[in-house]
Design brief:
There is one protein chain. The chain is mainly alpha-helical. The chain is built from five helices and two strands; from the N terminus they run ααααββα. It has a single domain, classed as Winged helix-like DNA-binding domain superfamily/Winged helix DNA-binding domain (Arc Repressor Mutant, subunit A, Orthogonal Bundle), CATH 1.10.10. A two-stranded antiparallel ribbon has the order 1-2. A hairpin with a 2-residue loop joins β1 and β2. It is globular, with a radius of gyration of 15 Å. It starts with a helix and ends in a 14-residue tail after the last helix.
Length: 111
């Protein structure tokens, strides 16, 4: 059983990862299927350098992992339950109050 401190640390790490819209988009994309960085950058319409920084953050937070694939590296969610958690969290927030926005939505921070 996790201690209260561990529970808080885990949720804070997840929250920091979700605090940035690009990282949210990356997680939602990887929820659909694993992807290569170049493909993700094209899909999200951002530079590979910018994406690399976000992938490093998500990797450091323990939410995504790299999978060697020949000379390339593929990214995927560290655990399939993360995809379910994202779906459940989104559904819960929308169910509570879909018309609310976070006043600090433009503030980003990394893990």
């Amino acid at each position: 059983m996790l201690t209260v401190s561990s529970d808080i640390d885990v949720l804070a790490r997840f929250g920091r990862a979700l605090a940035d819209p690009i990282r949210c988009r990356v997680l939602l994309s990887l929820r659909q299927a694993p992807a290569y960085p170049a493909d993700l950058a094209d899909q999200l319409g951002i530079s590979r350098t910018r994406l690399s920084n976000h992938l490093a953050c998500l990797r450091d937070c323990g939410l995504v992992v790299t999978v060697p694939d020949g000379r390339r590296t593929r990214y995927e969610l560290a655990d399939e339950r993360l995809g379910h958690a994202l779906d459940n969290l989104r559904a819960a927030v929308v169910a509570v109050e879909a018309d609310k926005t976070c006043p600090d939505a433009d503030t980003s921070g990394c893990c």
